[in-house]
Amino acid sequence: MKREEMRMDKKQESFSLEVMKFFESRFGAHEGILGETLGSALGHQIDDADLYFEYTTAETLSLEEGMVKKGGRHVSQGVGARILAGEKTGYAITEEIRPETLREIVRTARAISLGTGHGGNALRLVPARRETMSLYPVASDELDVPLSLKKGLLLEADRVARSVDPRVVQVMASVATEMKSVMVVRRDGLISADRLPLIRVNVTVIAEGNGQRQTGSFGYGGRIPFAEVTGEPLHHAAREAVRQALVNLEARPCPTGTMPVVLGPGWPGILLHEAIGHGLEGDFNRKGTSAFSGRIGERVASPLCTIIDDGTLPHRRGSLNVDDEGTPTQRTVLIEKGILKGYLQDRHNARLMGVSPTGNGRRESYAHPPMPRMTNTIMLSGESNPEEIVRSLDKGLYAVNFGGGQVDITSGKFVFSTSEAYWVENGRIQYPVRGATLIGNGPDALTRVSMVGNDLGLDPGVGTCGKDGQSVPVGVGLPTIRLEDLTVGGTA
Amino acid sequence: MNDKEALDLLSFVVDRAKTLGATAADALLIDSDDSVVGVRKGDVEKIQRTRSRGMGLRVFRGHAQAIVSTSDMDRNALETLVRGAVSMAEETQPDPFSGLPGTGPGSVAPVSSLDILEDPSPEISQEERIRLATEAERAAFAEDPRIQNSEGAEFQSTFVRSYLVNTDGFSGGSARSLYGLSCSVIAREDDSMERDYWYEQSHFYRRLPHPEEVGRHAGRRAISRLHPRRPKTTTCPVLFDAEVARTLVSHLLGALSGYSLYRNATYLKDRENTRVASTGITIREEPLLPGGFGSRPFDGEGVISRPKVLVEHGILKMYLFDAYSGRKSGRSSTGNASRSLGDSPHVGVSNVLVDQGTRSKDELLQDMKSGLYVTELIGFGVNQVTGDYSRGAFGFWVEDGEIQFPVSELTIAGNLDDMFQSIVEVGNDRRIRSSISSPSLLLENMRVGGNG
User: Fold this and answer.
1) What fold is seen in the domain A2-249?
2) ipTM of this complex prediction, to 2 decimal places
């Protein structure tokens, strides 16, 4: 982490101030206008209000058949006004950012509040003074590099992947960068701003052999400069994608039924995201609609499990300096040695439940109001040797890579689907198996964790979480673990 | 911005692209106005209004292309947009198959013939919107005392206008209105807590079903799921309810995409005019279906939409192409370009319908004798390259043709190729509720993962 420290001097202190100046100069959003606009809502019976400004530029470039065929550049800007009164939320947006349109969206949003106030006085705004440094100090020109560099990256991915094995018949690669500037203005007078870099590289290959076709895929990235996705990480991604496709060419039908399952480290942490993470989000628990509602202090996992949500990890895809309501992110303990300790909160649900916000109020963009969402959700390392965990399987599944997952919050039933998994007998890997869905029950799946490895790994930076139509980048982390009695949906 | 202003703006943008060095271009503009009112436990919970407008531009320099989009419609911003696109097209590599569809101006069916726009649109007061959602939720609670909690009921109205202009002389627009009412409630008894929902939607406010109907249905569905069991792991017949049968159809459509075809990324490669489903299966695309939720006068590249048969009595009749994927396979666009602002076209469908069979739901249950009746699926375990299919399922266990008890925490698995060919019965219960519509489908056998 030496690199971050080196950069801190030159651009840390000022990043949020710079963003505020940007919105002021581009849209005339100076403190006077903002204070007056938001203040006009305050005569009403309301509990909270905010304005969320966003300006995002994104660029994607993609390759297939050895050619960089497509490039795209996208600009998105807008403001969302939110008024909260009791359990009610009023929300309206505009993409034309002018004082009149700001006043109009505040008027629309406050229709939610009862009472007939005539508007309050202008708010006095206080810019948030953050002592801490940015978790992801990446300058625009470190992310938004010339297209020729991105093109070179993709061509190299193609070359490396094809050089690994002649059975590779198709390589698809893409690089996507995004720089998002946001500013939150709250009714308590706080103005907070952030600039969020994000990059993601993906390599997918199709291999043919044994009269079959199979795909393999590897993605990586984070809130890091472009320079960090080049070279060795790229070669690793290309080799991994090919390796996975070739493994799957040998895959046999997966056995079906209830059995012990060992999950490898890293991305299989999607288990945590689906099995417990969503169920611990404040909105579901305030409403009592989650299978975890009212269960703080109860055992919901084996004593081997300690699970946190941490938005403060430097450069991670799921990390944020402040959430989308201006609350600094933090490390929240969700489950400690198997006991449920806390929920993930935004300001609205925290206020209604009488607890503190946890810095988990997130939104996809200005077009959506925030909700409690995960950041990086992680199970801490245990004591077991990962190889011993695999060897402990008499008959069962060893799954090291997954596609997506989903959960029914109320019943607690969750699924996630393997993209690389092996059948194990007598502690030895027998053969790779074809993709299978694993299904379990959130509140009790983790009570059946019988071994936790000492090899915590974080995912390579690929997670995107969807909730109520909003997508946000997230991360997961997991050591190798063994679960008893998970249901595996194979065809054999 | 009215229709003429929108089309003029797009013409200005594509002309400007040409002036700056593009050889061809197309541009689209989408203008939407969305309003949601949510009620939970009898109180208004949210009021949300989202008016949004964005433009997407695709430019070609010879055979190299670039795509840009923006929500900033300022003339200066548009100039930057066009310049950015043209310069980006200098970096992407020329691909001889890229380009506009080459179909010219065409003759665009008037939106009025599609029956998707309520014009003039009725004024619906906020009070009226709140009342509809409130009544739906109240009906759900009234359905059974075990309905004890709610995720709420929502009334939503959406108006979308979209326009497309290209340098081959195509210029067209479409517009639709959409009204939706949904309700999601939670049934509880002892240790069992289950959620379910129902929704209805229509392009016409006056055709929306009564809110009570929506709420009662949501309530009944949640109650029916209480105290689910987990049958033993087995192989048995599976009946896909119409609501989930359409997801099977969407997997098949994905495998017919021209992009999957040239990438070797579909289990249906080289299968034209061969059997891909049992004889009872005929699948059509009806882009101009009056009132259809996917109806459109032209596709995302300005190709005029026409009805076609995709699968006839189980035989695959055609793949789906946009201009690019068509040329890659030596074919023409089938009018299946789908387009969002910031992306190059991909293959998508308008309205797809599976022809009805003759059996009612009860008769299908009788035909199945014993097996699994699936009403909800979760997860993403579908591999289009191999056809491997494995998802989480909820539903009911059936014995002697009768529903016995609800089931959950099960998996169903198979291969799409085998699954479509093992459809033994097709129901007569198709309703047009979304762009893809299917009756219930009975599959001979699938692997079901449960206890043991």
Assistant:
1) PmbA/TldD fold (3.30.2290)
2) 0.93
